């Protein structure tokens, strides 16, 4: 196993926090990983352990029962959890993704109603944004929200929704003005069990994930549950991505580290032609490239996270660069690790098989690699990067 590197971008408090989370992840979460990482629903025991350790408090402000929202700490938690269990990382991340629109943009009443439960784990949060025909194109969503007196009526369908069917509360994007494109989107808190809401989990994926769909059939939502003003939904979702898109890079770093650890362990033990596979120069070259890519990814990720925590604006390009580089690097590292395993890497259920499949998804969710390149390139051309 690689020595956990000392990142010059972290201060002493952050390093101590990372050591504490890593010890917890290895002791209390890693034993659950083989089963949890093949699950298509929220695993209650994993969720309970994360809540009891207090990790969900790091996605909620102090005044609502949390520890404050720090991009660096969120990235650290995601990196450390994903290095041992992708399912745990997903559960932590979705508590943040499904609640940060409330944190960033809701009034005090909504915050007091919905955030304390997120912090303690009494509530399971989710974000309802993606649709069957609208993924990267958020402005293309077709779910509608029609105002009727003191409530809104939602109609439409959502797909690839993490925690669907398991969540107790959802932040949902819907169009209050279908003719206004992205400027016609609004955000709402919708509670599980709301009349007209059908949330279905268990969608089977290449990389197992607690994911599913949502269907709104004249679903009534109190007008008081709108987050911000009508038409602010797109900006709210972009604020969400500025925080959690960077943290996907943290996840990628954890997966890359796990893949590299597996490659090191295997090549140090496996013998061929009278020596261990690790002693061959070609193997060492490959390991060197894997380790260098991982360290470069970590520096990009934590640089973006530090910028956000210091209030540097905008952080969109830094977040996109971090996610793009780290997720692409993690998949290359996982692929190289599997290659070093030879035929053993193709055995279903082995550690590198699980890591390889999990490393594929981050290149797609929260904006594909192609979308990140589009964002970065556009900002460079406009002279804003």
Explain what you see.
With 385 residues, the chain is of the alpha+beta class. It has 3 domains: 12-120, Butyryl-Coa Dehydrogenase, subunit A, domain 1, CATH 1.10.540.10; 125-233, Butyryl-CoA Dehydrogenase, subunit A, domain 2, CATH 2.40.110; 235-381, Butyryl-CoA Dehydrogenase, subunit A, domain 3, CATH 1.20.140. The chain contains 12 helices and 10 strands. It has helices at 12-29, 33-36, 44-53, 71-82, 86-97, 100-105, 108-120, 233-269, 281-309, 316-341, 351-360, 369-381; strands spanning 125-128, 144-148, 151-162, 169-175, 185-191, 197-200, 211-222, 226-227, 271-272, 275-276. The strands form 3 sheets. A 4-stranded mixed beta sheet has the order 1-4-5-8. Strands 2-3-7-6 form a 4-stranded antiparallel beta sheet, with no helix packed on it. A hairpin with a 2-residue loop joins strand 9 (271-272) and strand 10 (275-276). Helix 1 (12-29) runs parallel beside helix 4 (71-82) and helix 4 (71-82) packs parallel to helix 8 (233-269). The longest helix has 37 residues, at 233-269. The protein is globular, with a radius of gyration of 21 Å.
User: What's the oligomerization state?
Assistant: single chain
Strand content: 5-15%
Please compute the radius of gyration using only Cα atoms.
21 Å
Structural class: alpha+beta
CATH superfamily of the largest domain: Butyryl-CoA Dehydrogenase, subunit A, domain 3
Note the overall shape. Answer: globular
Order of helices and strands, N to C?
A: HHHHHHHEEEEEEEEHEEHHHH
C-alpha end-to-end distance: 37 Å
Count of beta strands: 10
> Share of helix among residues?
40-55%
């Amino acid at each position: 196993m690689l020595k956990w590197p000392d990142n010059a971008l972290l201060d002493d408090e952050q390093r101590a926090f990372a050591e504490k989370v890593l010890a917890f992840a290895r002791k209390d979460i890693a034993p659950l990983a083989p089963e949890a990482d093949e699950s298509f629903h929220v695993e209650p025991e994993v969720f309970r352990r994360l809540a009891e350790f207090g990790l969900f408090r790091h996605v909620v402000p102090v005044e609502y029962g949390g520890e404050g929202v720090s991009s660096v700490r969120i990235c650290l938690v995601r990196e450390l959890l994903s290095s041992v269990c992708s399912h745990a990382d997903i559960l932590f991340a979705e508590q943040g993704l499904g609640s940060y629109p409330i944190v960033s943009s809701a009034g005090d009443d909504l915050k007091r109603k919905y955030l304390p439960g997120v912090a303690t784990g009494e509530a399971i949060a989710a974000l309802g944004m993606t649709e069957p025909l609208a993924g990267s194109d958020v402005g293309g969503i077709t779910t509608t929200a029609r105002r009727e007196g003191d409530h809104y009526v939602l109609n439409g369908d959502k797909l690839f929704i993490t925690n669907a069917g398991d969540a107790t509360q959802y932040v949902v994007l819907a169009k209050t003005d279908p003719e206004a494109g992205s400027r016609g989107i609004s955000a709402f808190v919708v509670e599980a069990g709301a009349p007209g809401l059908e949330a279905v989990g268990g969608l089977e994926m290449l990389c197992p994930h607690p994911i599913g769909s949502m269907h709104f059939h004249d679903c009534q939502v109190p007008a008081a549950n709108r987050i911000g003003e009508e038409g602010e939904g797109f900006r709210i979702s972009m604020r969400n991505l500025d925080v959690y898109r960077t943290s996907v890079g943290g996840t990628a770093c954890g997966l890359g580290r796990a893949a590299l650890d597996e490659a090191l362990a295997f090549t140090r033990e496996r013998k061929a032609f009278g020596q261990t596979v690790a002693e061959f120069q070609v193997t060492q070259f490959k390991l060197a490239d894997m380790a260098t890519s991982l360290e470069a990814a970590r520096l990009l990720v934590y640089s973006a996270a530090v910028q956000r925590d210091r209030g540097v604006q905008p952080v969109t390009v830094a977040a996109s660069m971090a996610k793009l580089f780290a997720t692409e690097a993690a998949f290359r590292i996982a692929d190289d690790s599997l290659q070093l395993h030879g035929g053993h890497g193709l055995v279903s259920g082995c550690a590198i098989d699980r890591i390889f499949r999990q490393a594929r998804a981050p290149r797609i969710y929260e904006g594909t690699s192609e979308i990140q390149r589009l964002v970065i390139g556009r900002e460079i051309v406009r002279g804003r990067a």
